[in-house]
Amino acid sequence: MADVADKRRTIFPTLEDGTPFFWNYQLKGFFKDSAKMLLQMTERREVEVVAKDGTKKTKKQSVAKNEAGKLMNAYNYKTRLDGLLFVLPRKLPIRFNGGLGDCQRPLRTDGMIPRTALASSDTVPAESVMEFRVGLMDEAYEAFVRECLDYGEVRGLGQWRNSGKGTFLWEELDEDGNVIGGNYEALKENYF
Hints:
Blueprint: E1 3-6, E2 9-11, E3 21-23, H1 24-38, E4 42-50, E5 56-64, H2 67-71, H3 77-84, E6 85-88, E7 91-95, E8 101-109, E9 115-123, E10 129-130, E11 133-136, H4 142-151, E12 171-173, E13 179-182, H5 184-191
Parallel strand pairs: 2-9
Antiparallel strand pairs: 1-2, 3-7, 4-5, 6-11, 7-10, 8-9, 12-13
Helix pairs in contact: 1-3, 1-4
């Protein structure tokens, strides 16, 4: 997620002017992580199946419940996203008011000898903004991208996403900067 200032603290990389940023590969990792989780969502439905002898029968089968499941499977999602989805530019500056915050939390291992240590990381305040473009080689992935960005409201982005850090709302903008989609307007009242 970030550079390491010392062995006890994780920090954001910064631009020459000190602005913290995410690397584009971190956003691509977010899309891969989202796909992995969303692929777990299936539902059992009765489907009609044609046997080798030409007879038709109905059976229960797990089918995709979302865009991720319609486009990919558990074996090829990373390869597809590596070759078909691109996040631009390379460095994604984070705009916010105020200074960086600090998150301290315990790290636990569940090995033969369970251990606990204290970790510390930079944080950015709520309502921080990051702008990026998503380039797709196949338009069929547009709904998937929106689905993943919606998932960011609960899953989050970055190193500590499992703890609820990095959750976000998003807006889709047209070439003139007008909002044409996203979940920000619908959810901001309950979010911030």
